[in-house]
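Q: How would the structure tokens look for this protein?
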Amino acid sequence: MAPTGVGATPGLVFSNELQDVAFADPTTVSREISDTRPEFIKKVSRQLTAKDRIGLDVDAAGAPAKFYDWSWWKNIDNLATQLNFLLLYDDGTLEIPRAEGSLVGMPATLQVWRGQEKVQAGYIVDLKSLSINFLGDPLSFNAPTISLNTCPDLAGLF
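A: Here is the predicted structure in token form.
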């Protein structure tokens, strides 16, 4: 994670590694064009869901900061409609969801909330669940933008 909020430098911010990442099937709308043709079906949105089970008790500088991840996620939640999202895969591939026919980032909104998960008797894990609703399909066959493995300055960020 990187510092965000008032006085922070805007830029690329990584979340913790997420678990249970899943894309729902795209939401579609259909329109009948004529009696002699099949209806036209367009993908209009898609939702990504995930969980962050990693709790942080130190800030970006390594100083003790109890529940640091809570304030980080709260800030992200406050900026939910102002963010652009990138998809970074384990192999270093970076995809930028883009609006159809454009180089502009795909509009999306984020929701994040806290929950708890009982792992074993007497042990409960704090987790943050999130969903990102894209206005379009972020997996719409756009070629990956870049591989971070080819950028020495970014080595070790993922």
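The helical segments are 68-78.

Confidence is low (pLDDT under 50) at residues 1-10.

Upvote if useful.
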